[in-house]
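Task 17 of the worksheet. Students: predict the tertiary structure of the chain below and write it out as structure tokens. Keep your answer in the requested format; marks are given for formatting as well as content.
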Amino acid sequence: INSNATNGAAYTVNLTGNGQAATPNPQIAVSQGGTGIANSGTFTGFASTQQGSTSAPVVFTISNGSTTDALTLVAFTFSGPYALSGAAPTSVAPGGTATFSVTFSPTAPGTNTGSVSIVNNSQTNNPYVINFSGQGTSQDLVVSSPQAVQGSYRNVTIVGPNGVATLSGTLTVSGTLAVQAGGVLIQNCQP
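Model answer:
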């Protein structure tokens, strides 16, 4: 330290300290088709899919809003009838994007819900959760041998010569109920 003191002396002060690395702070955001999905938001854009089938994959984009820090994607955890299609990205460069795809395989007619939780190294949105809601449609039933039937179906066809359907509960058909030549539909009527 230089001084303007009358004795003209210079002073030296030794300083020590511990440096600390800056905490990375990547900024995760997710969109689908150009529309942002907030953390804990819900995506409802899956096509109606027949129970027992799988939808076409829907592509989601992960963006990293940081211009300096890489975004690390640690894990993708799915719930409900939703699954990852293909490989999951593991990182997104500063200012970059990466994609992942999701399929929907409804287990019942009507609304099927689930989610994905994306564990990452963002300081503000970890994990990043997207809730899903998709519509399952009824499947078709073909009866070609004696069997008890009940439930919800899109179409029911009872075929001959061995198709014998015995109602064992409520049968809901949203499309067509067809009993072909030689097929039999038996109702269990209560007195």
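Marker's comment: Residues 58 and 68 are 29 Å apart (CA to CA). DSSP finds no helices and 17 strands in the chain.
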